[in-house]
Amino acid sequence: MFDNMDLLSHDETKPMKGPIQATTCCCWCTRGLFFFALAIAFVAVALVIAIAKRTDAPIDLFLSKAEAIPTAFHPFSQEDEAVFETAIHVESFDKVWSTIKKSHWEADLGGVDWEAAKKELRPKVENAKSIKEARDAMKQLIKRLGKSHYGIIPAGAYDVVNTKRLGKAGAGITFRLSEEKILVAAVRKGSSAEKLGVQPGWEIVKAGKNESAEFLRKVKAVESIIRVETIVAFRFENLVSGAPGDEVKCVFRKPTPGGNSEELELDIEVALPPGNTIKFGNLPEMTIDMESKVLDSNVGYFRFNGFFDPVRLMPAFRKAVKEFESADGMIIDIRGNGGGMVGMCMGIAGPLAPTKAPLGVMKMRDNELKLAVNKSRKPYSKKVAVLVDEASASASEILAGGFQDLKIARVFGNRTAGLSLPSTIEKLPNGDGFQYAIANYVSAGGKELEGNGVVPDEIVTLTQKNLAAEIDPVLKKALLWIHSADK
Fold this sequence. Notes:
4-stranded antiparallel β-sheet; Pdz3 Domain
């Protein structure tokens, strides 16, 4: 029907095929927008159907930032202190073994002798004297795969980091972990926090009744395949949320001259975030926000917080690219962008691509999705910088990694989340959680992003000092490169 997904990655130098031949991605007329959105939906449905064949568990393939962690950390009631029952742990082992055999994207499990692994490790569960021993045997089984995004999450551990939002409104503060402190990394303009003087570089000591140090201690104690800094980035902001107009009492530690600090107690009023509220599939409502402007340094800047709402996002991005042609360069900011619809990566990369090239391949047991970018008739001619951090996940990583491979852009910031694969969580009979991947993604350069993330070309580590002194050190580094003679 869509002939190699022309609408997602249309080559502007060629006419489109089939009944929509007259509609090109560059004109973005009403008809084109409709079919573009339909093509995006086709990619989503095709992937979900293909993956659903491999598992009976709920699929959360396209995760927004708000839902990425709750999906992975669903609270179970059974605690490790429960009475040890051998039978339910053997049953749990069998569940892990059979699920991987059924769902792994390679029929031969990458050459692992799965029957031999079961024969060797199942008796360890049968003879286990504690939950830890049984759990360790299951972990050893998973380790045989040599892949990330597989893990056993102990029962009772989920509620530690399953910090759900108290309402749809937030403080407009971006928090990041640095130097064992949870710091303010950014403050939204016009927010209550900004009006009260909250600034990047401040340490948050307490949010409501929650001590930051205790939150961090508990997060570190959880056995998780997700990095601590990523969990903090995704979840801590939920402690400062509520209904519009609610106030959350926060204690900050403000740096003062001489290396000292001052504690401030502020009542932060929460508000609905800016942007367009959308609904996608079974995911809860989410707000997609984007920003396009030319900075004072004459560099174009485009930011968006999720790969959703293509009917609004794609025309806005293409318009920005054209407007930024007269600027000295362009910055794409996907920090804190938890991903979404992977097919949109092709549409974002298209206006910047001088040649037709692959972005990567997502492989499933019976299907694969080839992501590619077609060359633009008039590709952007200036330098392009991409900003990422530990909360850039899923489609954000695929886009940033693809830009690196194709040398379309230079990437700045912190290593991304390493959560590029579609995965799901199942509750085992013993109450533990079992997380497993259902597909594998390999970039055009042969890199597996899952568990590794995208390592920026220029790593910029956030510290309390540089946040306080430079406001946005990552943006500053990108601007210096754009205005330099370096390529």
